[in-house]
């Protein structure tokens, strides 16, 4: 049998009829190149956020649902040309909306949603998208059918409905059985991204950005040659192309480098995206339909280089300092447990070996609460608690482990005003520079120039 390619189309691309038409064109071109194709789709841009609001909001949910409905129906009209197929598809989408409406109505009447009901409602973005994409493929003469992640064989373990973990042993049994007969018959399955089923057969979600994870999971269980993640840019860039116009296209990334960049917002991928392909020869390509280049993510051995810079802002540094911390076993655990009790996520953490201070980097929205509770709880140690608004500039690539490269980057940073410190965990391919928020993009651009001129391997 010829090689399988799993092609995932993201919400950034699926925002209008042109997005769905480019999906069909790309599938046709992959088939022409001799591949068998499995498609994974996300919800249309913004729809998942709206559905989450629908479940949580007390009022205005009918309006929001109507907006989603008109979005999908108008895209169907703009991308399906056969009149019979169009009316059949409008009928199918309307029936799905009916189901969604009833589900939301039931939740509103009861006044609360079970995790399963909530997950099922949120998954409707992908459900409608899969029904639509499959119809657009059929309209262009490509045999197709659509299924949920669970029907495609993805089985989760554990109790989580929103950030489910996939059971590899179970899923590898079912995915081949569900999808291989279809691709062998030249039918293109369109799988709802972001979804799986648990042991009881109920729908669960894989976490935000989970369609990328769906694609790499299916690629693994099908023994595919490649997972292609299609979005509205032709790959990952050395900095956010919306802010840094000199940003360069990155041709190759290791799994670890790609993950760090993704977590920093350069492509908002699910944190587990590369787990399924680690230790396999499956390539992951990040690209845009009809583009002639991509960022290839694979297990690669290459000389250390620096790949990109990404900014994380709206942060605050909360620093606890004073002799009361020194050699006090459990002080760090106590401080972090206070953050945990408050539901505050710690983004970075630093302490000198003398133990005289501990700095926690947290979201700006959490820092007032954290600083005031810490002051109160730690008053007996007579320590000082202060906070400052900050941003981080994060430099990603194995090169930052090389003293020569990191020293050169830090020496540039030290000559610029607004730099407050650094965080690096030994062995990590990410070096973070803490800066004053107003200076972020100025410093980021200077560091980006240095990276591109000296340490870039294109
Ligand atoms: P999708 O909706 O297809 O899953 P994402 O939203 O995850 O796509 O990511 C694509 C977006 O990431 C692009 O629209 C792009 O503007 C943005 N982006 C931010 N930083 C970068 C970067 N360094 N390289 C590439 N894209 C970036
Ligand atoms: N639609 C889901 C989200 O917005 C999954 C995805 O797009 O990957 O998180
Ligand atoms: Mg995404």
Report, as a whole number of angstroms, the end-to-end distance.
35 Å
The CATH H-level homologous superfamily of the largest domain: Acetylglutamate kinase-like
User: What's the CATH C level of the largest domain?
Assistant: Alpha Beta
The largest sheet is: 8 strands, mixed
Shape descriptor reads globular
Mean pLDDT: 93
For the biggest β-sheet, the strand order reads: 3-6-2-1-9-11-12-10
The class by helix and strand makeup works out as alpha/beta
Radius of gyration: 24 Å
Number of domains: 2
Roughly what fraction of the amino acids lie in strands?
15-25%
Indicate the CATH topology of the largest domain.
Answer: Carbamate kinase
Tally of individual helices: 13
List the helices and strands and how they pair.
Elements: E1 4-9, H1 17-32, E2 36-41, H2 47-56, H3 61-79, H4 83-110, H5 115-122, H6 124-139, E3 144-147, E4 156-157, E5 165-166, H7 168-184, E6 188-192, E7 195-197, E8 203-205, H8 210-222, E9 226-230, E10 252-253, H9 255-263, E11 283-287, E12 295-297, E13 308-321, H10 331-341, E14 348-350, E15 357-363, H11 364-377, E16 384-396, H12 403-414, E17 419-424, E18 430-435, H13 440-455
Bound molecules: adenosine-5'-diphosphate, aspartic acid (ASP) and magnesium ion.
Magnesium ion (MG) binds near residues 10, 11, 209 and 268.
């Amino acid at each position: 049998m010829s090689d399988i390619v799993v092609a995932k189309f993201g919400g950034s691309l699926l925002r209008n009829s042109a997005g769905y038409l480019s999906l069909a064109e790309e599938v046709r071109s992959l088939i022409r190149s001799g591949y068998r194709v499995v498609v994974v789709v996300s919800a249309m841009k913004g729809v998942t956020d709206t559905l989450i609001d629908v479940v949580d909001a007390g009022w205005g949910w009918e309006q929001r649902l109507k907006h989603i409905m008109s979005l999908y129906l108008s895209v169907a009209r703009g991308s399906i040309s056969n009149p019979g197929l169009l009316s059949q598809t409008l009928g199918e989408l309307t029936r799905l909306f009916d189901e969604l409406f009833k589900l939301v109505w039931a939740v509103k009447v009861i006044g609360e949603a079970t995790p399963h009901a909530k997950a099922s409602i949120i998954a409707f973005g992908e459900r409608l998208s899969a029904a639509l994409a499959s119809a657009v493929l059929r309209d262009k003469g490509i045999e197709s059918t659509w299924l949920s992640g669970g029907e495609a064989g993805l089985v989760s373990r554990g109790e989580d409905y929103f950030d489910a973990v996939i059971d590899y042993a179970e899923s590898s049994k079912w995915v081949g059985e569900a999808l291989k007969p279809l691709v062998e018959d030249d039918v293109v399955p369109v799988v709802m991204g972001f979804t799986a089923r648990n042991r009881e057969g109920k729908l669960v979600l894989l976490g935000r950005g989970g369609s990328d994870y769906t694609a790499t999971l299916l690629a693994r269980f099908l023994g595919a040659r490649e997972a292609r993640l299609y979005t509205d840019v032709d790959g990952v860039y050395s900095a956010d192309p919306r802010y840094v116009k000199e940003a360069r296209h990155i041709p190759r990334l290791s799994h670890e480098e790609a993950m760090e960049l993704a977590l920093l917002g350069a492509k908002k991928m699910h944190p587990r995206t590369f787990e399924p392909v680690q230790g396999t020869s499956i390539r992951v390509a990040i690209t845009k339909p009809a583009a002639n280049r991509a960022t290839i993510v694979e297990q690669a051995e290459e000389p250390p280089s620096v790949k990109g810079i990404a900014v994380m802002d709206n942060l605050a540094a909360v620093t606890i300092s004073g002799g009361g911390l020194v050699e006090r076993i459990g002080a760090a655990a106590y401080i972090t447990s206070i953050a945990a009790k408050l539901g505050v996520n710690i983004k970075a953490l630093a302490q000198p070996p003398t133990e005289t201070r501990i700095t926690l980097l947290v979201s700006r929205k959490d820092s007032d609460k954290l600083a005031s509770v810490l002051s109160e709880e730690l008053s007996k140690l007579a320590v000082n608690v202060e906070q400052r608004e900050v941003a981080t500039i994060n430099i990603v690539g194995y090169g930052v482990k090389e003293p020569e490269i990191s020293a050169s980057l830090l020496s540039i940073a030290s000559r610029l005003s607004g730099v407050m410190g650094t965080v690096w965990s030994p062995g990590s391919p990410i070096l973070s520079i803490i800066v004053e928020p107003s200076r972020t993009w100025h410093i980021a651009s200077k560091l980006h120039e240095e990276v591109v001129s000296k340490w870039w391997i294109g």
